[in-house]
TrEMBL record:
Keywords: Oxidoreductase. It comes from Fodinibius halophilus. Gene3D superfamilies: NAD(P)-binding Rossmann-like Domain (3.40.50.720). PROSITE patterns: ADH_SHORT (PS00061). Pfam families: adh_short. PANTHER family: CLAVALDEHYDE DEHYDROGENASE (PTHR42760:SF37), SHORT-CHAIN DEHYDROGENASES/REDUCTASES FAMILY MEMBER (PTHR42760). GO terms for molecular function: oxidoreductase activity, acting on the CH-OH group of donors, NAD or NADP as acceptor. The keyword Oxidoreductase applies. This is SDR family oxidoreductase.
Length: 234
C-alpha cells in the first residue's frame, strides 16, 4: 500500500518501536493515532511526531473497545493496526509468581487479542485492513528467566497464524515482526540495569523501517512474518 494512505493505530506508541513507527508513517504522509498508558509521555510523543494521542491500557477490555471507537472517529478510513503494546517480566521459574505471569499475559497476549478483535470487526466491514503484530525473537526460542515473556510472545505468534487464516478472505493482511534486542527503554521498564548505547546493536528506527517496508508492498501480496537481527552485535 501507499504509505501516504495509511490510517494507523499504533499501540505502545509513546516510546521505542511504537513511537519510531508512528513517526515514520507520519513522515510518509500517513495519519496516526498513538495509544499508551502514560498520558504525559503519550502527549509529548504525539506533539513531537504529529500524531493523535489516545490514552489506553490495552489490558483493560472496556478501554480497548473505547479506543477503537475513538480511533475510527479520528481517522478517515482506519486501515492499519500496529499491535505493539507490551512489556517484559523476567525471572526464573522457581521465583515466578502466578500473578506476575498472569499480568504479563494480560497485556502482551490478551491485550493484543482485544485490540486485534475490535480492529478486525471494522476491517471486515470495510473489506480491507492490515494488522502487524510486534512480537519478538523470544517468541521463537526460549531462554533462562524468560518464562512469562516468552510464553506471551509464543502465544502471540499462534494468534497471528489464526487471524491470518480467518481474515485473508476479507482482504486483511496479518503480519508479524520479530525483533531481536532493540535499544529502547524496554530493559529499564523490565527492571534491568540501564545499558550504554552500542552502535552494533539494533535501534527502534530499524524496526520501524522494516514495518513500513512490509506495509508498502502492493496489496496483492504480503509478508506473513519476518525477524530482524543485528548483524554482528559486540
Amino acid at each position: 500500500m501507499d504509505l501516504s494512505k495509511v490510517q494507523a493505530l499504533v499501540t505502545g506508541g509513546s516510546s521505542g518501536i511504537g513511537k519510531a513507527t508512528a513517526k515514520a508513517i507520519t513522515e510518509a504522509g500517513g495519519d496516526v493515532v498513538i495509544a499508551a498508558r502514560n498520558k504525559a509521555r503519550l502527549n509529548e510523543a504525539a506533539e513531537e511526531i504529529g500524531a493523535t494521542p489516545l490514552q489506553c491500557d490495552v489490558g483493560d477490555e472496556e478501554a480497548v473497545v473505547d479506543l477503537i471507537e475513538k480511533t475510527i472517529n479520528v481517522l478517515d478510513g482506519y486501515n492499519v493496526l500496529i499491535n505493539n503494546a507490551g512489556y517484559g517480566t523476567f525471572s526464573k521459574l522457581v521465583d515466578l509468581s502466578a500473578s506476575d505471569f498472569a499480568e504479563q499475559l494480560r497485556t502482551n497476549t490478551i491485550g493484543a487479542m482485544v485490540v486485534g478483535r475490535e480492529s478486525a470487526k471494522y476491517f471486515i466491514n470495510q473489506d480491507y485492513g492490515n494488522i502487524i503484530n510486534v512480537s519478538s525473537t523470544a517468541g521463537k526460542k526460549g531462554f533462562e528467566g524468560g518464562t512469562a515473556y516468552v510464553a506471551s510472545k509464543f502465544a502471540l505468534g499462534g494468534m497471528t497464524e489464526c487471524w491470518r487464516s480467518e481474515l485473508r478472505p476479507h482482504n486483511i493482511r496479518v503480519m508479524q515482526i520479530n525483533p531481536s534486542e532493540v535499544q529502547t527503554s524496554f530493559p529499564e521498564n523490565a527492571g534491568m540495569e540501564e545499558r550504554a548505547f552500542n552502535e552494533t546493536k539494533l535501534v527502534a528506527d530499524d524496526i520501524a523501517q522494516t514495518i513500513c517496508s512490509m506495509l508498502s508492498l502492493p496489496d496483492r501480496g504480503f509478508i506473513p512474518e519476518t525477524s530482524v537481527w543485528a548483524t554482528n552485535p559486540q
